[in-house]
Amino acid sequence: MSGIGPAAAPDFTIEQDWQGYSAEEHAVWRLLFERQQKLLVGRACREYLDGLDALGVAAAGIPDFRRLGEALDRATGWRIVAVPGLVPDAVFFAHLAERRFPSTCFIRRRDQLDYLQEPDVFHDICGHVPMLMNPVFADYMQAYGKGGLKAEGLGNLERLARLYWYTVEFGLIATRAGLRIYGSGILSSAGESVYCLDDPRPDRLGFELRRVMRTRYRIDRFQDTYFVINDFDQLFEATRPDFAPIYRELAALPDLEPGQVLDEDRRLAGAAPALG
Ligand code: PHE
Ligand code: FE
């Protein structure tokens, strides 16, 4: 993204300038926050709701990263750094590898409540940070950062980015009570948090590492395919092996389109009705 001002450091971090938010910006946060709070009961996974609780991500307004970061640091050793927008891949990965989560500062306008293609502070803080309170997920994100630096060297960024997309951003998790959401892109979207569980159209397939890395994605609409993990240990274990031989293996296989279903895919039924 452009607009990197002279204040940006080599690692692209800036000051959040929390004092500088307007009353309108805090009001937009509250609107988004209250709407998601109501929707996410019975839809978000327990780990997310616990994280949100423990953080006390204020319904009151856009949080001060410094205060929020202290609670996060105490829980899992992660910190929040402010960035002006999307940063270069290598910079992003390097932050994750050091357990620093780069968060944007700006908030969407009132006429953009439902839809935004780039991350804003609501997505980054309310969508991602509560998940980083979970120890296993926190380790996964750090491992992902290290894996990103490696994938870049191996020319396989696109495949690794798909893994991020279908887990960190749009992942679902199977629980005894039915499917639940852990992907931040869904958690910060009112429309998609209902659609991903209740709509009959999208496919919900059992998570399989190679399958995910072969599947393209769309950034401009709700997903056609979601991948479902059983728990975060499964995700962490599946991604622990060295990816270098896997990248070589996948180079010989065609990419898959979102919405495509293979014979070997394990299809999961749509969600149990949300308990509300
Ligand atoms: N095991 C991966 C590698 O060797 C690193 C990784 C871990 C990537 C977790 C993503 C998530 O590249
Ligand atoms: Fe995100």
What would your notes on this structure say?
There is one protein chain. The chain has helices at 23-40, 46-55, 65-76, 89-97, 121-128, 135-153, 157-169, 184-187, 190-198, 209-214, 232-238, 244-251; strands at residues 79-83, 100-104, 172-175, 178-181, 203-206, 225-229. The N and C termini lie far apart (38 Å). A hairpin with a 2-residue loop joins strand 3 (172-175) and strand 4 (178-181). The model has no long low-confidence stretch (mean pLDDT 93). The chain is built from twelve helices and six strands. Helix 4 (89-97) packs across helix 6, helix 6 (135-153) runs antiparallel to helix 7 and helix 6 runs parallel beside helix 11 (232-238). With 276 residues, it is an alpha/beta fold. The longest helix is centred in the middle third of the chain and has 19 residues, at 135-153. It binds phenylalanine and fe (iii) ion (FE).
